Amino acid sequence: PRLLILGPPGAGKGTQSANLAEEYGIEHVTTGDALRANKDMDISDMDTEYDTPRAYMEAGDLVPDAVVNAIVDEALSQADGFVLDGYPRNLEQAEELEGMTDLDVILNLEVDREELVDRLTGRRVCDDCGANYHVEFSPPETEGVCDECGGELIQREDDNEESVRNRLDVFQDNTAPVIDHYADHDGFVTIDGEGSPDEVWAAIRDAVDARI
Ligand code: AP5
Ligand code: ZN
């Protein structure tokens, strides 16, 4: 299946996309991870304000569309089924995506703003394999150490409170209209993202199974 997962920063898109990729044997296409892996790539020939994605990302601002569109176009052209996470983030990107592929299911994860701040400021990620933890809600067995691979857990540079609040504002201003844009798509479904990760996963799996 071709799945899109929408929702504010911290809603659990990354967490649930990992489940979706495993359950359906599909590719997890995530612009956030792709950009983090290429933070220092030279984008100066794209007529951008900054020369690399890094400055945009650390502040929690959007990386210019041309950069992100190219990443997604390339990734989707190589994937059969996929779950797309982190894109589109504005109406221009949504229009671009329409030229690349159709979608079967659009999952819209909803979580209250203050809960999002708590989730993001408490998140830790594995520096080696990218696995996701939370100091309180899903701690690793040994503090600071990845359960999966033994790697070191670090805090993302944009998970400080100031960047988090800016990311939430950017979401309201740019991405909320994308959700309205998809709301009348046949495969659109809103999921309550506030339960435990397992509860949210059960709701997502049911919603996808009912639509594919
Ligand atoms: P990106 O990496 O996409 O970040 P984001 O959208 O801010 O989303 P997050 O990864 O922070 O949150 P998530 O929803 O995946 O939540 P998670 O599962 O980790 O983008 C980063 C930056 O890249 C952007 O700011 C921008 O600069 C740039 N960028 C990316 N895409 C772009 C685009 N298309 N255009 C332009 N620029 C772009 O969960 C969060 C935490 O909560 C974790 O600790 C987790 O363990 C915990 N948690 C998860 N589920 C639950 C639950 N049910 N209950 C309790 N805790 C939970
Ligand atoms: Zn790891």
Write the topology of this structure.
Blueprint: E1 2-6, H1 13-24, E2 27-30, H2 31-37, H3 54-59, H4 65-77, E3 82-85, H5 91-98, E4 105-110, H6 113-121, E5 123-126, E6 132-134, E7 153-154, H7 161-182, E8 188-192, H8 197-209
Parallel strand pairs: 1-3, 1-4, 2-3, 4-8
Antiparallel strand pairs: 5-6, 5-7
The chain binds BIS(adenosine)-5'-pentaphosphate and zinc ion (ZN).
General description of the model:
With 212 residues, the chain is α/β, with parallel strands linked by helices. It has two domains: 161 residues, 3-Layer(aba) Sandwich (Rossmann fold); 36 residues, no CATH class. Helix content is 42%, strand content 16%. The protein has eight helices and eight strands. The longest helix is centred in the C-terminal third of the chain and has 22 residues. The site of zinc ion has 8 residues, from loops.
Summarize the structure.
This protein has 212 residues and is α/β, with parallel strands linked by helices. It has eight helices and eight strands. A hairpin with a 5-residue loop joins strand 5 (123-126) and strand 6 (132-134).
Structural class: alpha/beta
**Percent helix:** 40-55%
Mean pLDDT, all residues: 96
> What is the total tally of β strands?
8
Number of domains: 2
- Silhouette: globular
Task: Give the key terms.
212 residues; alpha/beta; Rossmann fold; five-stranded parallel sheet; three-stranded antiparallel sheet; 8 strands; 42% helix; globular; binds BIS(adenosine)-5'-pentaphosphate; binds zinc ion
